[in-house]
Amino acid sequence: xxxxxxxxxxxxxxxxxxxxxxxxxxxxxxxxxxxxxxxxxxxxxxxxxxxxxxxxxxxxxxxxxxxxxxxxxxxxxxxxxxxxxxxxxxxxxxxxxxxxxxxxxxxxxxxxxxxxxxxxxxxxxxxxxxxxxxx
Length: 135
What we know:
It is a single chain. By secondary structure, the protein is of the alpha+beta class. Helices cover about 20% and strands about 40% of the residues. The protein folds into 2 domains: about 60 residues, 2,3-Dihydroxybiphenyl 1,2-Dioxygenase, domain 1 (Roll), CATH 3.10.180; about 50 residues, 2-Layer Sandwich (Signal recognition particle alu RNA binding heterodimer, srp9/1). The chain is built from 2 helices and 8 strands; from the N terminus they run βαββββαβββ. The chain is globular and about 35 Å long.
């Protein structure tokens, strides 16, 4: 898989409804995973969307989630840029440059879903998420 760059939107509990709406607008294939599927300890968040991805026939990719428990939802700052793929060296290189002189919110490390993932805000205030598949 080559690396891809796309928007990632955080919602305040209505990610499922929003992504189903976007699917009705753009068509394509929508996949959803909930916090409960990955063993969320808080039952109130079990049905919330941990990750959603809409891939359209036009080549659009839109990703989203509900804001995780314990994190603040701030409309206006709820869109990040996601870079994902399986080229570990390439993606770690992007991460190092983006995080330099920025703020790391989630260190780039192995996550419960099996990938290596990190979140940072670059020195210009842009939020980035890097996901390295199966690493």
